[in-house]
Design a protein that fits this description.
about 475 residues; alpha/beta; 15 helices
């Protein structure tokens, strides 16, 4: 049996790693590579390197812009390698992995070139406002979009003048480890470091005395733990957490025209998207038609390993999530829900589940009230739109929501009533690019990512009383 390929962490510009764990391909459930399990000494070394590199890095915005431009070029030049790694560890189809790698380069390039005001005059000749970097940022990323989520964090943090220690999910560490290794050609040593490992590594990062900020994307339960961990020394924190986004269909929708977009608003990345539609509210008068249309789309979608021709959906990423999604599905069916299509495994190996449309789901069922984060979509009938809006606004989650109608302005009137971070009209889980801020309400998070607003999260507002100086 051949030895598994070993990937390295990058600390102070150099490869690192002494202890290792196996990474599985979710399509085969077979280990195909190893990643380092960072020791406490290695975590400390990463923060020490970032701290030592901070002052020089923070001093020259021109250098930062040039470095980020080069970083975008490096990612673009290595898209094929990174996409193959990403497909193998995450499970998504190769075309989607290629798209994620290109998106990663686009995010880095945006933050390299975005114009940031040097200062804002509050009182001419007397008072101005500037933004200064915080210091060292600890960034922790999830397993659904590991590569681009890393760029969501390190690109604005670095452009703002901070240095970074990054940790990817232990389910999907490899593409990120390789990307940061490649990016050492773009950044000075210590500016961008990456460590890998399980929950204990993340805890060590959040509790370490050096970082001034923790930026975390993941589950709501883990986000609460991060918030508790940083409270003791009042670190800055951004949390992009779970969602239970509703898609609200109005009674004038063109069902046939909307079905494809509605389906992919829920099943993009196999439903493993915090901002995907997790439940669809449908008027009783058109409930059968909407169900039939979504079933037809679901049955046309090929499920399989990401390197197979024509596959649109791969496996669920890991066994724990596979079991959670199946548990929610089984619980709903036991309570009376009807599986209109899907709910089946594929083959005898891998975490595959065919896209599943549920009808007749009892009110209050967990699969309606909680985020499933997988390829199962419950359809909920309604007669009163005010009741639907109230249900959405009473939810613990508030990441996003969508409204679907043949009249976009009618949909917008309903959308404006939703207390969520993002409202979509006749679409869902749409991302128009790195210039658009993204964040949620309530249990869906604190702060925003992307755009100038996202970059400002990595800064301290500083007020200057000039007393005659040129502000």
């Amino acid at each position: 049996m051949s030895e598994l390929q070993r990937f390295s962490m990058t600390i102070n510009g150099k490869p690192a790693g002494t202890e290792y764990f196996s990474v599985l391909n979710p399509a085969t459930e077979v280990p195909f590579a190893e990643a380092p399990e960072a020791t406490p000494t290695e975590v400390h070394a990463a923060f020490a390197a970032a701290e030592a590199a901070f002052d020089v890095w923070a001093s020259d915005d021109g250098v930062r812009r040039s470095a980020l431009r080069k970083a975008a070029e490096v990612i673009t030049a290595n898209v094929d390698e990174l996409a193959q790694i990403l497909m193998s560890e995450q499970g998504k189809p190769l075309a989607d992995a290629v798209g994620e790698a290109h998106g990663t380069a686009a995010w880095i390039g945006y933050f390299a070139d975005v114009e940031i005001p040097e200062s804002e005059v509050i009182t001419p000749g007397a008072v101005a406002q500037v933004r200064i970097p915080l210091g060292v940022v600890a960034a922790i990323t999830p397993w659904n979009y590991p590569l681009i989520q890393a760029a969501w964090k390190f690109a604005p943090a670095l452009r703002a003048g901070n240095t970074v220690v990054l940790k990817p999910s232990p389910y999907t560490p490899l593409a990120t480890l390789r990307a940061i290794e490649l990016l050492q050609d773009a950044f000075p040593a210590g500016v961008l470091n990456v460590v890998s490992g399980g929950d204990s590594v993340g805890v060590a990062m959040t509790k370490h005395p050096v970082p001034a900020m923790v930026s975390f994307t993941g589950s709501t339960s883990a986000g609460k733990a991060v918030a508790a961990a940083v409270a003791d020394d009042l670190k800055r924190v951004t949390l992009e957490l779970g969602g239970n986004d509703p898609a609200i269909v109005l009674d004038d929708i063109d069902v046939a025209a909307a079905a494809e977009d509605l389906f992919w608003g829920a099943f993009v990345n196999n439903g493993q998207v915090c901002g995907a539609a997790k439940r669809v509210f449908v008027p009783e008068s058109i409930y059968p038609a909407v169900a039939d249309a979504l079933v037809a789309v679901a049955q046309s979608v090929a499920v399989g390993a990401g390197d197979q021709e024509g596959v649109r959906l791969g496996p669920i990423n890991n066994r724990a999530q596979f079991e959670r999604v199946n548990g929610l599905l089984e619980s709903a069916v036991a309570a009376g829900a009807r599986v209109r299509t899907g709910g089946e495994t594929v083959g005898d190996r891998g975490y595959f589940l065919t896209p599943t449309i549920l009808t007749d789901v009892p009110a209050g069922a967990e699969i309606i009230e909680e985020e499933q984060f997988g390829p199962v979509l419950p359809l909920v009938p309604y007669t009163d739109i005010d009741d639907v809006v109230n249900q959405v606004n009473r939810s613990k989650y508030g990441l996003g929501g969508s409204v679907w109608s043949s009249d976009p302005n009618r949909a917008l009137a309903v959308g404006r009533r939703l207390r969520v971070g993002t409202v979509y009209i006749n679409g869902h889980a749409i991302n128009h690019g790195p210039h658009v801020p993204f964040g949620g309400a309530r249990w869906s998070g604190i702060g925003v990512e992307n755009g100038l607003a996202g970059l400002e999260e990595y800064t301290q507002r500083q007020i200057i009383y000039g007393n005659g100086a040129d502000l």
